Amino acid sequence: MKKNIFLLPVITATAICFTACYQRAAKVPTIPGRPASIGIIGDTADVLTPVRGGVVLIGGGGNVDGAFQWMISRSGGGDVVVLTASGNGSYNHDIDSLGKVNSVETLNITTRELANNDTVANIIRNAEMLFIAGGDQSRYMNNWRNTKVNAAINYLLNEKKVPVGGTSAGCAILSGLYYSGEGGSAVSDSVLANPYDPLVTLYNNDFLHAPYLQSVISDQHYMKRGREGRHVTFMSRIIKDHGIFPRGIAPDEKTAVCIDEHGMAQVFGVSKACFILTDSLKKPELCEKGQPLQWNAGGQALKVYEIAASASGNGSFSVADFDPAKASGGAWYWWWVENGQLKKKAI
């Protein structure tokens, strides 16, 4: 039986309004003795359970129950920690309702002081499953990068090897190459017309170090918000500025890419995910400030594998090496850019 239960107020229409108003007027209430904690369901005593590693990239727009269940199964039913910087404690109940776990706790880490707090870092290190909520990834970058929380997350990813997932902003920071979103959200049409638009803010492996994602840049809300063009622009800038030919992973809303400890991915949810391959023999022909992106290569600049999601997981793609021969359950496309216009065709 679960004990030591701490819950935020029951969410009703009135409570939602009250909570929103309260958070604007004051700090989100925390659990005494547990800095940054804004809610716990379950047993506060630490447990050790057998775990299997894995990374989950969710495209935002709503939960993907199958992805949470995939992570819970790999956690061994241990302690789950949710990280946020926006006071969102709703994941506690969502996750607890989907499988048997010892506890679920949300930490609202809004300052570098909290991100360097030993108790906060130790709560994370003791987790058997970690989930990073959506919001604004620049807050995560600015408040967590090069802190004890940063080190604790990387410890879970690479040493303890527990399942770690993120949605929207949480997904964005899990790839080694990432878009910070500082200053505002880049829009496909604008950045295709000018790849050096000030909103194109990219970083190279200075934050989280998830297995198999060192050369990957992710994007989210993909088809829903028409972000294919900006994602391709990000990749062109990485080639031009860093000399790295990146790979892309992009789940649409309510869709998750679940990558196991061997680097094999399946797609869960209701929409699609794209896996994008670049080729070192096919550089962008024109990637300059104030000029439309040109990345044609005879209509074969980027090779893209698209997998439709299912509730229980569909398709297979090797994120470990992006080997096309190992892909199944989806369809291949060529993508290219002509004079700032993204084009696609089936292979």
Topology:
Blueprint: H1 13-25, E1 37-42, E2 54-58, H2 65-75, E3 79-84, H3 91-96, E4 103-108, H4 112-115, H5 118-125, E5 129-132, H6 137-144, H7 148-160, E6 163-167, H8 169-172, E7 177-179, H9 188-193, E8 202-204, E9 216-218, H10 228-242, E10 247-251, E11 255-260, E12 264-269, E13 272-277, E14 302-308, E15 314-318, E16 331-338, E17 341-346
Parallel strand pairs: 2-6, 3-4, 3-5, 5-6, 9-10
Antiparallel strand pairs: 1-4, 2-11, 7-8, 10-13, 11-12, 12-15, 13-14, 14-16, 16-17
Q: What is the CATH superfamily label?
A: Class I glutamine amidotransferase (GATase) domain
Rg (CA only): 20 Å
Annotated CATH topology = Rossmann fold
Report the principal-axis shape.
Answer: globular
Unreliable runs, pLDDT <50, ≥5 residues? 1-26
Beta-sheet strand percentage? 25-35%
Order of helices and strands: HEEHEHEHHEHHEHEHEEHEEEEEEEE
Query: How many angstroms does the end-to-end distance come to?
Result: 54 Å
* Helix residue percentage: 25-40%
Q: How many domains, as an integer?
A: 1
CATH architecture annotation name? 3-Layer(aba) Sandwich
| Assembly level | single chain
Describe the protein's architecture and organization.
There is one protein chain. This protein has 10 helices and 17 strands. The protein has helices at residues 13-25, 65-75, 91-96, 112-115, 118-125, 137-144, 148-160, 169-172, 188-193, 228-242; strands at 37-42, 54-58, 79-84, 103-108, 129-132, 163-167, 177-179, 202-204, 216-218, 247-251, 255-260, 264-269, 272-277, 302-308, 314-318, 331-338, 341-346. The chain is of the alpha/beta class and 347 residues long. It has a single domain (13-346), classed as 3-Layer(aba) Sandwich (Rossmann fold). The chain is 25% helix and 26% strand. The chain has a 9-stranded mixed beta sheet with strand order 1-4-3-5-6-2-11-12-15, with helices on both faces. A 6-stranded mixed beta sheet has the order 9-10-13-14-16-17. Helix 5 (118-125) runs parallel beside helix 7.
